[in-house]
Fold this sequence. Notes:
Distance between the termini: 9 Å
Pfam family, one: Kelch_KLHDC2_KLHL20_DRC7
Signal peptide: 1-21
Organism: Volvox reticuliferus
Radius of gyration: 21 Å
InterPro entries: Kelch-typ_b-propeller
Shape: globular
CATH class: Mainly Beta
CATH architecture: 6 Propeller
Number of domains: 1
Strand content: 35-45%
Keywords: Kelch repeat, Repeat, Signal
Amino acid sequence: MILTFIxxxxxxxxxxxxxxxxxxxWCLGGVGLCRGKDISSEQYSHTMTIVPxxxxxAPKAFVLGGQRSTATSSYVSxxxxxxxxxxxxxxxxxxxASFSSGDAARPQRSGxxxxxxxxxxxxxxxxxxNRTESKNPVATNxxxxxxxxxxxxxxxxxxxxxxxxxxxxxxxxxxxxxxxAAVFSNTxxxxxxxxxxxxxxxxxxxxxxxxxxxxxxxxxxxxxxxxDSNSNTGLHKSAMxxxxxxxxxxxxxxxxxSSPNGSSTAEPAEPQNKLWAFEVASxxxxxxDMDLSDMDNPVSNDATLLLLETQSFDSDGxxxxxxxxxxxxxxxxxxxxxxxxxxxxMWVTVKSSITSxxxxxxxxxxxxxxxPSNSKSxxxxxxxxxxxxxxKTSTVLQxxxxxx
Length: 404
């Protein structure tokens, strides 16, 4: 399971290549996909979302949207859906996905959020091309779900919530891109993002998928909100996941402001490396103190989270189910501050909590103010599983053998 997750992370950090509507194997060490040529078609601000195995389908990774350059014409349409079969690592792209008639969704999209839901993909927000409104791409707050097709019908996007131009008096989230998103049962959760005015947002919302209704969740008086290293509230490009029981959301990384709020030089482009937890019952956020005493924890450009289910035996010999949090993050490094971007090297770290499967049992203490033994200052230990450093010719892999 661990090695499978690591391999998937390698694919996420690799260049994604679009192909025709036919299966194609991975080649070039995972850097590209076999198309009869070695030149990859670069793509960024897209999403790659893993949909677990079902009775009728192998586990797949769905690649959606994004852009190939800063030009509006380079935005990738959601009519083009690329899937990677995670069993045999073959790829297929269809360009025939449509939108349900009468809906106002715009197919070209970048900077959206995507989560697995009911064996398919649920998409929120992003920036879309809408030339009737603006010459530049504009943010959206749409929620759309992919109804997968069959051998006799193409897939179709169903719009669950149509785009609004504003927050509609605080009843729906303002249009945004790069929001953190997670789903549990029939509820989509989002946090933060960045709006049309490049302002970083700090709000928490839930969307009832069946009732198609938004609810904003305000923290209690004195409650905390995820913030960056300069104490500015709000983040964008964070990774978020719901716990297995739906009681908590976990949020890691993201980007904040490059200087304290109000500074004329502040830019929304400062990567972060903190872990936050949201308690659904109390609607409050708390910072999780990660014990990283044995390793560095560099700030990351992107990250993804996994709750890995574990099993152990108690003192009576009974099986005890548990979970550990796995954090995979990516970034780049260079030994010289004056180095050109062409010399930057990509890195990936994979680290995990080490709690003997008790990670979820430690979360309630973060929100417990009455029991002195449950101090919010308690640290949760983490350890490195693997470190990847990539250059033009190879990828250096270091794996902690005790965790494989």
